[in-house]
Design brief:
Layout lengths: L20 H15 L6 H8 L3 H8 L2 H24 L6 H15 L23 H28 L8 H20 L4 H11 L25
Helix pairs in contact: 1-2, 1-4, 4-5, 4-6, 5-8, 6-7, 7-8
Length: 226
């Protein structure tokens, strides 16, 4: 079977070197994940990918296009566990989010890739020339928060969430905790430490209050926010 690794053996005149595009993309993804867009130089990219500059431009077009493709590849991979847990029909809403935080602690500290989340803190501070890229990353983060909000709305419709839950605030809170876990992971926090943070976050989960008691963070009246 022909090896899928980048081929570095000498070829005949006029024959370009053959490389595994998927492996090269994975190498670029990990480098961007570790160092960010601006922290990754072109020379570092082609070295990590094992390709020449001409092969890079022929296959990926530009550094910016490669970053967009790498981000999409990352989101496709992370989306499998994120949406798999969030949309599990066999669990109620609270259980789904509890499992999501446990999985987040595990995925962000796996050890076979850079810690944390590739998009959580990506392009927060960029020059004017990278405005479009920054906006793209904002959209990616908003998409996952929106998915959380949809899961909460589903819980309300199915009756396992208080009907007056402030969906947008609760989803923003849970998303903020998840983004914070990404920073914790990059700073070296252990898996157990991050799982503990997730369990503390779940204490703010809304519940039907007893008469005369105030409501929790996620269950304030919708009318107050309209």
């Amino acid at each position: 079977m022909t090896s899928k690794l980048v081929q570095t053996a000498k070829r005949g005149r006029g024959r370009p070197p053959v490389f595994d595009r998927e492996a090269a993309l994975m190498a670029a993804t990990k480098l961007f994940w570790e160092r960010g867009y601006e922290g990754t130089s072109f020379d570092e990219l082609i070295a990590a990918m094992g390709i020449s500059a001409s092969s890079f431009y022929n296959s990926f077009g530009s550094k910016e296009r490669l970053y967009c493709e790498a981000t999409s590849s990352y989101l496709e991979s992370s989306g499998r566990w994120f949406f798999g847990i969030l949309n599990d029909e066999s669990t109620d809403t609270r259980t789904a989010f509890s499992r999501l935080f446990d999985a987040t602690a595990e995925e962000f500290t796996r050890g076979d890739h850079p810690p944390g989340c590739m998009v959580s803190v990506a392009c927060l501070q960029t020059g004017p020339g990278l405005k479009n890229m920054r906006e793209m990353m904002v959209e990616h983060r908003a998409f996952s928060e929106g998915a959380m909000a949809e899961r909460i709305r589903k819980g309300i419709a199915e009756g396992d969430m208080p009907s007056d839950t402030d969906v947008d605030v609760l989803a923003a809170y849970l998303s903020a905790v998840a983004r914070g876990l990404a920073v914790q992971a990059r700073d070296g926090a252990s898996r157990e430490r991050m799982a503990q943070i997730g369990r503390v976050a779940m204490r703010a989960w809304p519940s039907d209050p007893a008469p005369g008691k105030s409501k929790t963070v996620g269950s304030s009246k919708r009318g107050a926010h309209q």
